[in-house]
């Protein structure tokens, strides 16, 4: 990275902080802070869900699989789209219909206080430690791209690059600040902006790489054997089917995704947000996995390369591909895109668990009389505490000796089986609180035995299949046995029905806020201005940069025009209703 790259990255960071401050004024209650007051546009919710699935590991892990096995990586990521479409059809509307403010509220109603604590603390440990590992991994990748001159206070003298500690503190601190100030509104809108930046960077890389590889025809002709097969390298059709099922549970029941369904105005918008998420994951994986795919064709593996050499080449494929073609300034944009991928995941988990601690622990158990203003303040305190904990874990990872991986590995044995009882509780009246503990106990014991107890080469060779059996098949079998043996409607089902009826009677119709569309339009316009500025200083790629600038300006004008048209239409509807 050079000076202009650092300028682009700095402007981006300032931009996301500005978004947090802009949306802070919308947070007047806990519902605003953690559910966007039910006023999020469906497209913002869908884009936010799409980005929540991303992390810096998306580039390293899936980029590496694309480099080694070709279109297998595309097929695996298409499963997310299939899962999200299924969730949109079966689940998303049901979550909105309940009238809950947080997903934990449903757990408390459906399964009771003990189950709520069990869900909250086990999932919080898993997610916070997992996100800390992701933040650390992101910092490792980014500092390798950020050399600094001598005398710079952020420089690590041993490497000549930005200090890993400062990278974690600065990048993580920015996420914590905008999440604390702006709440879910800031999370949603920064996710949308991050979606724009991510795709802008990737869309710019792809044509440049094709131009240097002989075009699409040259790419297809020079690709390795079986490069375009959708299975291989141990990833079978059975694995892909199981991957769809696992992520149906995840998108349908994980609290960060459920939050996206309850923050929109109505059930129809909840379904549309999940459909958008799904459609994007059906069309975008090929786009953002093309750089490592093309890189493999341009730089094939050396004959006789060792597995360690292959793994190293695969891990570096995405970064090397982008660095090979990006002009000055665009490397900074790519770094911003990689930051965006992890920032989305971090901010989502911070907000959802701050919401649980505020609404379902503090308000319900400690201070039921708390005012909405105090709940917003408490929510911000919890966001800072969780953020500080996350950053502390990320900074400590080099000294934990792999303990963080053990924690994630063990808690994952609990969290996976907790997704299925959540979904079963939405639809089946004979599932009670005992089902939660029986399912998690059986699956945890089986998973622990398989992962840490039995030393078997067969299990090692079929680890992916066992993950599917333990994460999907076993919880479903246990729950279906419990449902078949049940004889009466659980008390939790009745509590949920009573709550839903009361909320429906008291519900106030809400509409989507226009401000997100205005922010997106301005963001696109500013990105177009950035492209135009880079075009002036880059004669070689000036035409492509100018085309991007014009396209972004056209999109900005379209988005702003549509938002204004929709606003005027809503005003006319209100005036007709009044008359």
Question: What attributes does this structure have?
Answer:
single chain; 579 residues; mainly alpha; Sodium/glucose cotransporter; 23 helices
Low-pLDDT residue spans: none
Number of strands: 0
The CATH homologous superfamily of the largest domain corresponds to Sodium/glucose cotransporter
Instruction: Name the helix and strand elements from N-terminus to C-terminus, one letter apiece.
Output: HHHHHHHHHHHHHHHHHHHHHHH
Number of domains: 2
For the sheet with most strands, the description reads: none
* Helix/strand/pairing category: mainly alpha
Radius of gyration, Cα only, in angstroms? 24 Å
Overall outline: globular
Mean pLDDT, as a whole number?
85
Helix percentage = over 70%
Span between N and C termini? 61 Å
CATH hierarchy: architecture of the largest domain: Up-down Bundle
CATH class of the largest domain: Mainly Alpha
**Strand percentage, roughly?**
under 5%
- How many H/I helical runs? 23
Oligomer: single chain
Topology-level CATH name of the largest domain: Sodium/glucose cotransporter
């Amino acid at each position: 990275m050079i000076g202009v790259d650092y300028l682009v990255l700095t402007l981006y960071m300032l931009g996301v902080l500005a978004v947090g401050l802009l949306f802070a004024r919308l947070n007047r209650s806990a519902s605003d802070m953690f559910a966007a007051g039910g006023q999020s546009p469906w497209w913002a919710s869908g884009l936010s869900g799409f980005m929540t699935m991303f992390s810096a590991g998306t580039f390293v892990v899936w980029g590496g699989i694309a480099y080694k096995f070709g279109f297998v990586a595309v097929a695996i990521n298409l499963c997310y789209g299939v899962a999200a479409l299924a969730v949109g059809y079966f689940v998303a509307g049901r979550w909105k219909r309940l009238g809950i403010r947080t997903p934990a509220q449903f757990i408390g109603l459906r399964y009771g206080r003990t189950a709520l604590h069990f869900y909250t603390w086990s999932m919080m440990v898993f997610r916070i430690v997992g996100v800390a590992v992701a933040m650390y991994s992101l910092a490792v990748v980014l500092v390798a791209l950020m050399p600094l001159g001598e005398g710079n206070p952020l420089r690590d003298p041993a490497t000549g690059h930005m200090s890993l500690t400062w990278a974690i503190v600065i990048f993580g601190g920015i996420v914590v600040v905008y999440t604390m100030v702006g709440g879910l509104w800031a999370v949603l809108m920064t996710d949308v902006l991050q979606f724009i930046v991510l795709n802008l960077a990737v869309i710019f890389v792809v044509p440049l790489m094709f131009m240097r590889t002989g075009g699409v025809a040259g790419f297809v002709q020079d690709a390795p054997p079986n490069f375009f097969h959708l299975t291989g390298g141990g990833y079978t059709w059975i694995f892909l089917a199981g991957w769809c099922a696992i992520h149906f549970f995840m998108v349908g029941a994980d609290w960060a995704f459920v939050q996206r369904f309850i923050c929109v105005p109505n059930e129809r918008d909840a379904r549309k947000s999940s459909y958008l998420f799904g459609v994007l994951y059906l069309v975008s994986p090929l786009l953002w996995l093309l750089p490592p795919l093309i890189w493999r064709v341009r730089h094939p593996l050396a004959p006789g390369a060792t597995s360690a050499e292959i793994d190293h080449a695969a891990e570096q494929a995405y970064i090397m591909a982008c660095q090979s073609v990006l002009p000055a300034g665009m490397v900074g944009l790519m770094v911003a895109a990689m930051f965006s991928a992890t920032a989305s995941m971090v901010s989502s988990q911070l907000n959802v668990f701050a919401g649980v601690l505020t609404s379902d622990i503090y308000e319900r158990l400690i201070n039921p009389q708390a005012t909405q203003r105090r709940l917003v303040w408490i929510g911000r305190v919890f966001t800072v505490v969780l953020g500080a904990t996350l950053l502390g874990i990320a900074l400590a990872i080099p000294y934990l000796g792999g303990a963080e991986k053990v924690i994630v590995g063990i808690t994952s044995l609990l969290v996976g089986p907790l997704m299925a009882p959540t979904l079963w509780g939405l639809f089946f009246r004979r599932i009670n609180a005992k089902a939660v503990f029986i399912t998690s106990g059986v699956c945890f014991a089986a998973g622990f035995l398989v992962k840490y107890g039995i030393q078997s080469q067969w299990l090692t060779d079929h680890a992916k299949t066992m993950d599917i059996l333990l994460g999907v098949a076993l919880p479903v079998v246990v729950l279906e046995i419990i449902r078949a043996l049940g004889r009466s409607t659980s008390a939790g089902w009745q509590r949920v029905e009573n709550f839903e009826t009361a909320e429906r009677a008291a519900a106030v119709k809400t509409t989507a806020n226009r401000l997100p569309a205005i922010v997106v339009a301005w963001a696109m316009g500013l990105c177009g201005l950035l492209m135009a500025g880079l075009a002036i200083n880059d004669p070689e790629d000036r035409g492509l940069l100018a085309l991007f600038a014009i396209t972004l300006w056209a999109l900005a004008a379209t988005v702003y025009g549509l938002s204004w048209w929709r606003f005027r239409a809503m005003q006319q509807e209100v005036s007709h209703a009044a008359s």
